[in-house]
Amino acid sequence: MDSATPHPDDAVTPAVALARFADLVAADAPLRTRLATIREHEVFAAACVAAAREHGLVFSAEDLRSLLQSRHLLWLQRHLW
Amino acid sequence: MNTPTPELSVSGGWVPFHVVRGAPEFAVLWTWLGAERFRDPFFDQTVSSAFNHPLPLLLQRATSLEQLVELAERAPDRPPSAFIFHVSRCGSTLVAQMFARLERLFVLSEARPLTVALEDPRLSPGDRRRAFRALIRLYGCAANSAGYIVKLDARNLLTWHEIAEAYPGVPRLVLHRDPVEVLVSNLSNQQASLTPGQIEPAQLGPPPRALTGPEDYAAFVLSRFYAAAVEAAAAPCSLTLDYRALPRAVETLVVPHFGLRLGAAEVEAMTAATGIYSKDASRSAPFVADSAAKHAEADAATRALAAEWLAPHYGKLRALSAAV
Q1: Could you tell me if B307 lies within 8 Å of chain A, comparing CB atoms?
Q2: pLDDT tens-digit series, residues B163-211
Q3: B112 in contact with A at a CB cutoff of 8 Å?
Q4: Of A26, A44, A80, Cβ closest to residue B7
Q5: ipTM reported for the complex surpasses 0.85
Q6: Distance (Å, whole) CA B156 – CA B86
Q7: Residue A69's Cα: distance from chain center in Å?
Q8: % helix / strand / coil in chain B, to the nearest 5?
Q9: Neighbouring residues of B3: CB distance < 8 A, sequence distance ≥ 6
Q10: What is the pTM of this model?
Protein backbone atom coordinates (compact mmCIF):
# COMPACT_ATOMS: atom_id res chain seq x y z
CA MET A 1 0.00 0.00 0.00
CA ASP A 2 1.56 3.33 -1.01
CA SER A 3 1.20 6.59 0.86
CA ALA A 4 -1.61 7.79 -1.44
CA THR A 5 -3.81 4.82 -0.56
CA PRO A 6 -6.03 5.37 2.49
CA HIS A 7 -5.30 2.93 5.29
CA PRO A 8 -8.24 0.79 6.35
CA ASP A 9 -9.38 1.69 9.84
CA ASP A 10 -9.27 -1.56 11.79
CA ALA A 11 -11.50 -0.09 14.49
CA VAL A 12 -14.39 0.31 12.08
CA THR A 13 -16.72 -2.70 12.06
CA PRO A 14 -17.88 -4.14 8.72
CA ALA A 15 -21.40 -2.85 9.44
CA VAL A 16 -20.14 0.69 9.94
CA ALA A 17 -17.89 0.41 6.90
CA LEU A 18 -20.90 -0.72 4.84
CA ALA A 19 -22.97 2.20 6.07
CA ARG A 20 -20.17 4.64 5.23
CA PHE A 21 -19.77 3.05 1.83
CA ALA A 22 -23.51 3.44 1.16
CA ASP A 23 -23.18 7.12 2.09
CA LEU A 24 -20.24 7.41 -0.25
CA VAL A 25 -22.13 5.80 -3.14
CA ALA A 26 -25.15 8.01 -2.48
CA ALA A 27 -22.97 11.09 -2.78
CA ASP A 28 -20.81 9.93 -5.70
CA ALA A 29 -22.86 10.02 -8.93
CA PRO A 30 -20.24 8.39 -11.21
CA LEU A 31 -19.71 5.50 -8.77
CA ARG A 32 -23.49 5.14 -8.33
CA THR A 33 -24.00 5.06 -12.08
CA ARG A 34 -21.32 2.43 -12.47
CA LEU A 35 -22.77 0.22 -9.72
CA ALA A 36 -26.32 0.68 -11.04
CA THR A 37 -25.37 -1.12 -14.23
CA ILE A 38 -24.39 -4.26 -12.30
CA ARG A 39 -27.35 -6.60 -11.84
CA GLU A 40 -25.53 -9.79 -10.83
CA HIS A 41 -25.14 -9.85 -7.07
CA GLU A 42 -21.72 -11.56 -6.99
CA VAL A 43 -20.24 -9.10 -9.45
CA PHE A 44 -21.86 -6.23 -7.56
CA ALA A 45 -20.40 -7.42 -4.24
CA ALA A 46 -16.92 -7.73 -5.72
CA ALA A 47 -17.15 -4.24 -7.25
CA CYS A 48 -18.33 -2.75 -3.96
CA VAL A 49 -15.62 -4.44 -1.90
CA ALA A 50 -12.97 -3.14 -4.30
CA ALA A 51 -14.42 0.39 -4.46
CA ALA A 52 -14.74 0.52 -0.68
CA ARG A 53 -11.11 -0.51 -0.19
CA GLU A 54 -10.03 2.39 -2.38
CA HIS A 55 -11.62 4.62 0.26
CA GLY A 56 -10.20 2.75 3.23
CA LEU A 57 -13.44 0.93 4.04
CA VAL A 58 -13.23 -2.79 4.69
CA PHE A 59 -16.03 -5.31 4.57
CA SER A 60 -16.37 -8.66 2.85
CA ALA A 61 -18.57 -9.69 -0.05
CA GLU A 62 -20.41 -11.88 2.44
CA ASP A 63 -21.06 -8.86 4.72
CA LEU A 64 -22.63 -7.06 1.78
CA ARG A 65 -24.63 -10.08 0.56
CA SER A 66 -25.98 -10.58 4.06
CA LEU A 67 -27.13 -6.94 4.26
CA LEU A 68 -28.83 -7.06 0.86
CA GLN A 69 -30.50 -10.38 1.60
CA SER A 70 -31.86 -9.13 4.92
CA ARG A 71 -33.27 -6.02 3.27
CA HIS A 72 -34.85 -8.06 0.49
CA LEU A 73 -36.42 -10.35 3.08
CA LEU A 74 -37.79 -7.36 4.97
CA TRP A 75 -39.41 -6.12 1.79
CA LEU A 76 -40.98 -9.52 1.14
CA GLN A 77 -42.38 -9.39 4.69
CA ARG A 78 -43.46 -5.75 4.42
CA HIS A 79 -47.04 -6.45 5.46
CA LEU A 80 -45.75 -7.64 8.84
CA TRP A 81 -43.72 -4.63 9.99
CA MET B 1 -30.37 2.21 8.35
CA ASN B 2 -28.35 5.33 7.64
CA THR B 3 -29.22 8.82 8.76
CA PRO B 4 -30.51 11.30 6.17
CA THR B 5 -27.99 13.37 4.28
CA PRO B 6 -28.44 16.35 1.97
CA GLU B 7 -28.40 14.25 -1.20
CA LEU B 8 -31.65 12.53 -0.20
CA SER B 9 -34.09 14.04 -2.70
CA VAL B 10 -36.68 12.76 -5.13
CA SER B 11 -35.09 14.72 -7.94
CA GLY B 12 -31.94 12.74 -7.20
CA GLY B 13 -33.81 9.45 -7.66
CA TRP B 14 -34.77 8.74 -4.03
CA VAL B 15 -38.30 7.54 -3.26
CA PRO B 16 -40.11 6.70 0.00
CA PHE B 17 -41.08 3.03 -0.25
CA HIS B 18 -42.18 1.87 3.18
CA VAL B 19 -43.51 3.20 6.46
CA VAL B 20 -42.34 1.10 9.40
CA ARG B 21 -45.34 0.18 11.52
CA GLY B 22 -43.70 -1.93 14.22
CA ALA B 23 -41.52 0.77 15.77
CA PRO B 24 -42.34 3.28 18.50
CA GLU B 25 -41.77 6.24 16.18
CA PHE B 26 -43.09 6.91 12.70
CA ALA B 27 -40.27 6.16 10.24
CA VAL B 28 -40.23 6.22 6.44
CA LEU B 29 -37.75 4.13 4.47
CA TRP B 30 -36.39 5.46 1.20
CA THR B 31 -34.58 3.74 -1.59
CA TRP B 32 -32.71 4.95 -4.63
CA LEU B 33 -34.55 4.11 -7.86
CA GLY B 34 -32.64 6.45 -10.14
CA ALA B 35 -34.64 7.19 -13.28
CA GLU B 36 -37.05 4.27 -12.71
CA ARG B 37 -40.68 5.32 -13.30
CA PHE B 38 -43.74 3.85 -11.61
CA ARG B 39 -45.28 2.36 -14.76
CA ASP B 40 -46.34 -1.02 -13.33
CA PRO B 41 -49.99 -1.62 -12.41
CA PHE B 42 -49.07 -1.37 -8.71
CA PHE B 43 -46.51 0.59 -6.68
CA ASP B 44 -45.26 -2.59 -5.00
CA GLN B 45 -44.51 -4.20 -8.36
CA THR B 46 -42.13 -1.40 -9.27
CA VAL B 47 -40.35 -1.56 -5.91
CA SER B 48 -40.17 -5.36 -6.05
CA SER B 49 -38.72 -5.17 -9.52
CA ALA B 50 -36.15 -2.61 -8.37
CA PHE B 51 -35.14 -4.85 -5.48
CA ASN B 52 -34.16 -7.58 -7.91
CA HIS B 53 -31.13 -5.38 -8.47
CA PRO B 54 -28.57 -4.89 -5.71
CA LEU B 55 -28.03 -1.12 -5.70
CA PRO B 56 -31.53 -0.11 -4.46
CA LEU B 57 -31.09 -2.63 -1.64
CA LEU B 58 -27.79 -1.03 -0.64
CA LEU B 59 -29.01 2.56 -0.91
CA GLN B 60 -31.69 2.86 1.73
CA ARG B 61 -32.34 5.57 4.29
CA ALA B 62 -34.80 6.22 7.09
CA THR B 63 -36.44 9.54 7.90
CA SER B 64 -38.65 10.71 10.74
CA LEU B 65 -41.93 12.50 10.11
CA GLU B 66 -40.26 15.89 10.57
CA GLN B 67 -37.48 14.99 8.15
CA LEU B 68 -40.04 13.69 5.66
CA VAL B 69 -42.00 16.94 5.83
CA GLU B 70 -38.81 18.99 5.53
CA LEU B 71 -37.71 17.07 2.44
CA ALA B 72 -41.19 17.41 0.93
CA GLU B 73 -41.11 21.17 1.44
CA ARG B 74 -38.04 21.33 -0.78
CA ALA B 75 -40.05 19.77 -3.63
CA PRO B 76 -42.53 21.66 -5.84
CA ASP B 77 -46.06 21.54 -4.43
CA ARG B 78 -48.18 20.16 -7.25
CA PRO B 79 -51.46 18.63 -6.13
CA PRO B 80 -52.63 15.48 -7.92
CA SER B 81 -54.81 15.81 -11.01
CA ALA B 82 -57.28 13.36 -9.50
CA PHE B 83 -57.86 10.60 -6.96
CA ILE B 84 -59.31 7.21 -7.90
CA PHE B 85 -61.31 5.50 -5.14
CA HIS B 86 -62.78 2.02 -5.53
CA VAL B 87 -64.42 -0.82 -3.61
CA SER B 88 -61.87 -3.33 -5.04
CA ARG B 89 -62.10 -5.64 -8.05
CA CYS B 90 -64.19 -3.13 -9.95
CA GLY B 91 -62.02 -1.90 -12.83
CA SER B 92 -59.89 0.68 -11.03
CA THR B 93 -56.65 -0.86 -12.26
CA LEU B 94 -57.96 -0.81 -15.81
CA VAL B 95 -58.77 2.90 -15.49
CA ALA B 96 -55.37 3.58 -13.91
CA GLN B 97 -53.56 1.71 -16.66
CA MET B 98 -55.50 3.59 -19.33
CA PHE B 99 -54.24 6.88 -17.90
CA ALA B 100 -50.76 5.43 -17.42
CA ARG B 101 -50.59 5.07 -21.23
CA LEU B 102 -50.45 8.86 -21.50
CA GLU B 103 -46.84 10.01 -21.57
CA ARG B 104 -47.70 13.32 -19.91
CA LEU B 105 -49.37 11.61 -16.95
CA PHE B 106 -48.04 9.51 -14.11
CA VAL B 107 -50.28 7.17 -12.13
CA LEU B 108 -49.34 6.30 -8.58
CA SER B 109 -51.19 3.07 -7.86
CA GLU B 110 -51.91 1.83 -4.34
CA ALA B 111 -48.74 3.08 -2.71
CA ARG B 112 -48.79 1.41 0.68
CA PRO B 113 -46.94 4.23 2.48
CA LEU B 114 -49.99 6.42 1.86
CA THR B 115 -52.27 3.90 3.56
CA VAL B 116 -50.02 3.57 6.59
CA ALA B 117 -49.71 7.35 6.88
CA LEU B 118 -53.48 7.81 6.69
CA GLU B 119 -54.17 5.20 9.36
CA ASP B 120 -51.09 5.42 11.61
CA PRO B 121 -52.21 5.23 15.25
CA ARG B 122 -48.89 6.74 16.41
CA LEU B 123 -49.74 10.03 14.73
CA SER B 124 -52.28 12.69 15.61
CA PRO B 125 -54.91 13.42 12.93
CA GLY B 126 -52.94 16.56 12.02
CA ASP B 127 -49.69 14.65 11.67
CA ARG B 128 -51.38 11.95 9.60
CA ARG B 129 -52.44 14.65 7.18
CA ARG B 130 -48.91 16.16 7.17
CA ALA B 131 -47.42 12.74 6.44
CA PHE B 132 -49.95 12.03 3.70
CA ARG B 133 -49.45 15.41 2.06
CA ALA B 134 -45.66 15.10 2.30
CA LEU B 135 -45.68 11.68 0.65
CA ILE B 136 -48.05 12.81 -2.11
CA ARG B 137 -45.88 15.86 -2.76
CA LEU B 138 -42.74 13.73 -2.98
CA TYR B 139 -44.34 11.17 -5.29
CA GLY B 140 -45.73 13.98 -7.42
CA CYS B 141 -42.25 15.42 -7.74
CA ALA B 142 -40.77 12.00 -8.50
CA ALA B 143 -43.31 11.66 -11.29
CA ASN B 144 -41.53 14.35 -13.28
CA SER B 145 -44.55 14.62 -15.57
CA ALA B 146 -47.13 17.27 -16.44
CA GLY B 147 -49.63 15.76 -14.03
CA TYR B 148 -50.27 12.73 -11.88
CA ILE B 149 -53.21 10.67 -10.73
CA VAL B 150 -53.33 8.86 -7.40
CA LYS B 151 -55.15 5.56 -7.45
CA LEU B 152 -55.78 4.62 -3.85
CA ASP B 153 -56.17 1.29 -2.09
CA ALA B 154 -59.77 0.18 -1.52
CA ARG B 155 -59.31 0.59 2.26
CA ASN B 156 -58.48 4.27 1.72
CA LEU B 157 -62.22 4.79 1.25
CA LEU B 158 -62.37 4.57 5.04
CA THR B 159 -60.32 7.79 5.19
CA TRP B 160 -61.74 9.44 2.08
CA HIS B 161 -62.85 12.44 4.12
CA GLU B 162 -59.32 13.09 5.40
CA ILE B 163 -58.00 12.83 1.83
CA ALA B 164 -60.66 15.26 0.61
CA GLU B 165 -59.77 17.69 3.41
CA ALA B 166 -56.07 17.42 2.56
CA TYR B 167 -56.78 18.11 -1.11
CA PRO B 168 -60.02 20.07 -1.44
CA GLY B 169 -61.12 20.59 -5.01
CA VAL B 170 -59.14 17.71 -6.49
CA PRO B 171 -61.52 15.62 -8.64
CA ARG B 172 -62.41 12.15 -7.41
CA LEU B 173 -63.53 9.08 -9.31
CA VAL B 174 -65.49 6.55 -7.24
CA LEU B 175 -65.73 3.11 -8.81
CA HIS B 176 -67.97 0.27 -7.73
CA ARG B 177 -69.36 -3.01 -9.04
CA ASP B 178 -72.07 -5.57 -8.56
CA PRO B 179 -71.64 -6.99 -5.02
CA VAL B 180 -71.75 -10.65 -6.06
CA GLU B 181 -68.94 -10.09 -8.56
CA VAL B 182 -66.80 -8.18 -6.04
CA LEU B 183 -67.38 -10.74 -3.31
CA VAL B 184 -66.69 -13.75 -5.53
CA SER B 185 -63.44 -12.16 -6.67
CA ASN B 186 -62.35 -11.30 -3.14
CA LEU B 187 -63.25 -14.68 -1.65
CA SER B 188 -61.35 -16.57 -4.33
CA ASN B 189 -58.28 -14.32 -4.18
CA GLN B 190 -58.54 -12.29 -1.04
CA GLN B 191 -56.89 -8.90 -0.62
CA ALA B 192 -54.91 -8.53 2.62
CA SER B 193 -57.28 -5.86 3.98
CA LEU B 194 -60.07 -8.43 4.31
CA THR B 195 -58.04 -10.58 6.71
CA PRO B 196 -58.86 -9.98 10.40
CA GLY B 197 -56.28 -7.76 12.07
CA GLN B 198 -55.20 -5.94 8.91
CA ILE B 199 -57.51 -2.99 9.58
CA GLU B 200 -57.91 -1.68 13.11
CA PRO B 201 -61.35 -2.58 14.51
CA ALA B 202 -61.82 1.03 15.60
CA GLN B 203 -61.53 2.11 12.00
CA LEU B 204 -64.23 -0.30 10.89
CA GLY B 205 -66.56 0.31 13.79
CA PRO B 206 -68.49 -2.49 15.48
CA PRO B 207 -70.35 -4.95 13.22
CA PRO B 208 -74.12 -4.88 13.66
CA ARG B 209 -74.15 -8.57 14.55
CA ALA B 210 -71.65 -11.24 15.58
CA LEU B 211 -69.48 -12.32 12.64
CA THR B 212 -69.50 -16.03 11.88
CA GLY B 213 -66.27 -16.66 9.96
CA PRO B 214 -63.69 -15.36 7.49
CA GLU B 215 -66.17 -14.93 4.63
CA ASP B 216 -68.58 -13.06 6.87
CA TYR B 217 -65.74 -10.84 8.08
CA ALA B 218 -64.61 -10.14 4.52
CA ALA B 219 -68.16 -9.18 3.51
CA PHE B 220 -68.43 -6.93 6.58
CA VAL B 221 -65.19 -5.09 5.70
CA LEU B 222 -66.33 -4.71 2.10
CA SER B 223 -69.61 -3.28 3.38
CA ARG B 224 -67.59 -0.58 5.13
CA PHE B 225 -65.84 0.20 1.85
CA TYR B 226 -69.19 0.37 0.04
CA ALA B 227 -70.72 2.57 2.74
CA ALA B 228 -67.79 4.98 2.60
CA ALA B 229 -68.00 4.95 -1.20
CA VAL B 230 -71.61 6.14 -0.92
CA GLU B 231 -70.47 9.08 1.22
CA ALA B 232 -67.60 9.92 -1.14
CA ALA B 233 -69.87 9.58 -4.17
CA ALA B 234 -72.37 12.05 -2.72
CA ALA B 235 -69.69 14.71 -2.08
CA PRO B 236 -68.80 17.52 -4.49
CA CYS B 237 -65.93 16.82 -6.92
CA SER B 238 -66.92 13.15 -7.24
CA LEU B 239 -67.78 11.24 -10.37
CA THR B 240 -69.23 7.81 -9.64
CA LEU B 241 -69.20 4.93 -12.09
CA ASP B 242 -70.26 1.33 -12.17
CA TYR B 243 -67.86 -1.26 -13.57
CA ARG B 244 -70.38 -1.86 -16.35
CA ALA B 245 -69.74 1.65 -17.69
CA LEU B 246 -66.07 0.81 -18.29
CA PRO B 247 -64.06 1.36 -20.37
CA ARG B 248 -66.39 3.49 -22.50
CA ALA B 249 -67.02 6.10 -19.82
CA VAL B 250 -63.32 6.77 -19.28
CA GLU B 251 -63.04 8.84 -22.44
CA THR B 252 -66.51 10.39 -22.32
CA LEU B 253 -66.87 11.15 -18.60
CA VAL B 254 -63.69 10.56 -16.60
CA VAL B 255 -61.29 12.46 -18.86
CA PRO B 256 -63.34 15.70 -18.75
CA HIS B 257 -64.01 15.22 -15.02
CA PHE B 258 -60.24 15.14 -14.47
CA GLY B 259 -59.92 18.35 -16.51
CA LEU B 260 -58.03 16.70 -19.36
CA ARG B 261 -58.29 17.15 -23.11
CA LEU B 262 -56.92 14.33 -25.20
CA GLY B 263 -55.64 14.25 -28.73
CA ALA B 264 -56.51 11.42 -31.09
CA ALA B 265 -53.20 9.65 -30.48
CA GLU B 266 -53.77 9.76 -26.73
CA VAL B 267 -57.27 8.32 -27.07
CA GLU B 268 -55.80 5.55 -29.17
CA ALA B 269 -53.13 4.88 -26.57
CA MET B 270 -55.71 4.69 -23.79
CA THR B 271 -57.95 2.42 -25.82
CA ALA B 272 -55.05 0.04 -26.41
CA ALA B 273 -54.89 -0.57 -22.66
CA THR B 274 -58.45 -1.92 -22.56
CA GLY B 275 -57.56 -5.14 -24.34
CA ILE B 276 -54.92 -6.10 -21.77
CA TYR B 277 -55.51 -7.67 -18.36
CA SER B 278 -54.69 -4.58 -16.32
CA LYS B 279 -53.04 -6.25 -13.31
CA ASP B 280 -50.53 -8.14 -15.43
CA ALA B 281 -47.16 -6.40 -15.05
CA SER B 282 -45.94 -7.98 -18.30
CA ARG B 283 -48.83 -6.28 -20.13
CA SER B 284 -49.30 -9.32 -22.36
CA ALA B 285 -52.25 -11.22 -20.87
CA PRO B 286 -55.49 -10.38 -22.70
CA PHE B 287 -58.49 -8.96 -20.82
CA VAL B 288 -61.38 -11.41 -20.44
CA ALA B 289 -64.83 -10.16 -19.33
CA ASP B 290 -65.79 -12.23 -16.30
CA SER B 291 -69.04 -10.84 -14.87
CA ALA B 292 -71.14 -13.79 -16.05
CA ALA B 293 -68.53 -16.27 -14.84
CA LYS B 294 -68.47 -14.66 -11.41
CA HIS B 295 -72.25 -14.89 -11.09
CA ALA B 296 -72.12 -18.52 -12.17
CA GLU B 297 -69.41 -19.16 -9.60
CA ALA B 298 -71.34 -17.60 -6.71
CA ASP B 299 -72.90 -20.15 -4.36
CA ALA B 300 -75.97 -19.50 -2.23
CA ALA B 301 -73.89 -18.48 0.80
CA THR B 302 -71.95 -15.90 -1.21
CA ARG B 303 -75.17 -14.49 -2.67
CA ALA B 304 -76.65 -14.22 0.80
CA LEU B 305 -73.57 -12.35 2.09
CA ALA B 306 -73.67 -9.98 -0.88
CA ALA B 307 -77.38 -9.34 -0.38
CA GLU B 308 -77.05 -8.73 3.35
CA TRP B 309 -73.87 -6.67 3.54
CA LEU B 310 -73.38 -4.97 0.18
CA ALA B 311 -76.57 -4.72 -1.84
CA PRO B 312 -78.13 -1.84 0.14
CA HIS B 313 -75.04 0.32 -0.40
CA TYR B 314 -74.76 -0.76 -4.01
CA GLY B 315 -78.30 0.44 -4.65
CA LYS B 316 -77.29 3.89 -3.37
CA LEU B 317 -74.13 3.88 -5.46
CA ARG B 318 -76.11 3.00 -8.57
CA ALA B 319 -78.41 5.93 -7.87
CA LEU B 320 -75.43 8.27 -7.50
CA SER B 321 -73.65 6.97 -10.61
CA ALA B 322 -73.29 8.96 -13.78
CA ALA B 323 -75.51 7.90 -16.64
CA VAL B 324 -73.55 6.52 -19.56
Answers
A1: no
A2: 999 999 999 999 999 999 999 999 998 888 999 999 999 999 999 999 9
A3: yes
A4: A26
A5: yes
A6: 9
A7: 13
A8: 50, 15, 35
A9: B61, B62
A10: 0.91
The separation between the first and the last C-alpha atoms of chain B, rounded to the nearest angstrom, is 52
pLDDT digits 0-9 by tens, B225-269: 999 999 999 999 999 999 999 999 999 999 999 999 999 999 999
Let me know how long chain A is.
81
What's the gap in Å between the CA of B15 and the closest CA on chain A? Answer: 13
CA distance B213 to B182: 18
Task: For residue A50, count CB atoms less than 10 angstroms from its CB and return exposed for 0-12, middle for 13-18, buried for 19 or more.
Answer: exposed
Q: Are strands B27-32 and B60-64 parallel, antiparallel or unpaired?
A: antiparallel
Q: Pick from B3, B9, B32, B53 the residue to mutate for testing the A interface (most A CBs within 10 Å).
A: B53
CB contacts of B7 in chain A (<8 Å) are 26-27
Enumerate residues 39 to 78 of chain B having a beta carbon within 8 A of any beta carbon in chain A.
44, 47-48, 51-55, 57-61
